[in-house]
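Q: Convert this sequence to structure tokens.
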Amino acid sequence: CARLLFVVQLADSVVPEVTDDQPHNPYTELQVLVNHSDIVRCLARIDHSRFVSAGDDGKVIVWHAETGRHLHTLSNHTRPVTAVLLLPALSISKGDSAENLIPTDGIQSTPLDTLSSEWLITASSDKTIQIWNVQTGIHHKTLQSYGSVKCLVSLFHGTMICSAGQDICIWNINGDLLAHVRRPKADSDIHTVVPIRGNRLVIASDRNSLGVYNVEELPAKPGQLAINSFRDLPAHREAIRCLIAVSDAMFASSSLDGMIVLWSTLSLHPMRKFNEHQVYRDSQHCYPFCVNFLVALEGRYILAAIGNGFSMFDVIVAMNVVKRTCAHSSSLLHMELVAGGSLLATSSEDSMIRLWRINTPNTDMDDRLKATSPPNSPIETFMGERELVTHSKDTKPVTPALVGELAGHSAAIQRLLDCSPSGFVSCSSDAHVILWKAGSMESQKRDEAIRSFLRTGCGCDGGDTNHLTNSL
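A:
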């Protein structure tokens, strides 16, 4: 038994290679979008047909998700863009009052005409925050921050914005500063803020502990807020790399030491710990178990990029349900469920994207891509409903199989973004954004465009062929 276990562990410690013609890889076409001139670090989906990219060139670009067509370039930043936040329009029915859309303590700082618009908020190391109208691409306002801004998060149903970096600020959409906390310059910049219950903010920087702040209304100054330090949460041995909200009751943090800590939003005490290692540095003083990326799925699962591999943890039964120790030749940087959850895409410093699958799908991959409303959630599709129901503490982690590899970038791939059913998007240090498309679906679209063109009869007399060219 010991020998068998050693063989299994050894097999998982070797980076797998694609040995066939990738019959289960649907993404056989790509479109390179080259409007950026420096590292592209941010991707965000606006809706089913649009997404936005941003990077170190200071540009924020809105694209059409299906065609890759450039829609808008938003160019007000003078230094790298560090964060992007979409604030969807708040729908207001005739029976609703303004009080239903603002904090319960009565603070009202954002008029309804502003709330009815859809806004894109961008932050930069140039110490500014820019507000844009998503639909028109028109610049709305510039907010002058007190230092470099590293992250943005919406508060109170999207009526306010919290920005953080050197300092912590809370703004309304009109650009009014409602609260500001100055932090010592010796402290490292905040890279993540997570709002939790009780009007609190949890912040993460390069320290080995989290910070918790209370957000309170100032009785003597109606409409103004105070941000007060409440507690530090020490749990890690090294600098914290990731902080995410898991559910209303839980949030999670991870660090260079590889440990993932699950916290209670009510008690602010650790609930679970995953991926603990007594020795977490190797002989070269590197961190092979460093967690570079975390994402929560459906309030129960945490998907983590750990060193060169990845794992998925079930926080309810406290177990590792998916594990691939070596997935790339270099550190993983990002992961995304694509194709409706049928595949897990991983990106790395090695400039490659790899596709992973657990169960052989019961339906054809093309049918899954065409589906407008998948019968299962992405995590159910990836794991299989039976796997989700039957796993217990005695169940061994599932090892996903490599089914595809995508080569298009020439440098580290920073982010992935699912744009199903169109495909998915990647951005890289090579300044390129790539739209990966399912070849069979694109071929079908071209065939339909040709048939539609021929049915019109426009080509019978040798007339204008621009319509056909644009369709293709």
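Residues 1-11, 91-112, 460-472 have pLDDT under 50 and may be disordered.
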